[in-house]
Amino acid sequence: MSLPITFSFQCSIRRNGKSSLATDGQPLQFVQLRLRHFGQLVHTPSQQILQQTSPTLISDTLIPFSLWELEDPPFISYFFLFRFLSSYDISAAVCDAIFYNISSFAGQILLAADSNINVNFHIIADVDIVYTHWVDLDPAEDAPAVRKGASTSVIERVMKEKYDGNGGEEKEGDDQCSVCYEQLYGKRENENEKEKEVSRIPCGHMYHKSCILKWLKISNSCPLCRRELEE
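The line above is the sequence of RING-type E3 ubiquitin transferase; the predicted structure tokens follow.
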């Protein structure tokens, strides 16, 4: 039995490159915010992750992050972070938590540099939006730790399949690709950008072809209805 889809946030922080001291009194101190998303299939009773897609980058930006702001109210750095994340409908509470984690990480860099306020650093903060598909399997069924992907013949059939948007009644959820969570027929930002090709798999649900092919490498079933694809 499938349960409602929920979403949450994860934030992983790391430092890029080695520390070096600024010589001109203007240290290079900034944070690279990378907003990504991925989906996972979780067995409700055991909390076991059955399937998970690779993170897909949505957008990224660089924001200044002066160590002086660890002592003074961090208006500038927080403003840039909040403006970037809130444009993707991320709440203020989540923005506060992410900024706190980055500040704590920057504080560790300051301690490692013997409290030298002019140390250079480049922090990379990956903020992941996690879409979780909850499933409550029948007790008589075993929930395997690893599920096999689709066979070569199934993948080849999906690769050859073409869908022009006509013919057949659309199913619920067909306005959005349930792998990348973007519109199936989104607007192109420029004329040179190719529109993503759409495929309809045997159960009737539609996805971006590139997305469903990536999904089928780890699972031989529809991400929505869980119907397996026959060879």
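Note on the example: The CA atoms of residues 116 and 146 lie 48 Å apart. Confidence is low (pLDDT under 50) at residues 139-145.
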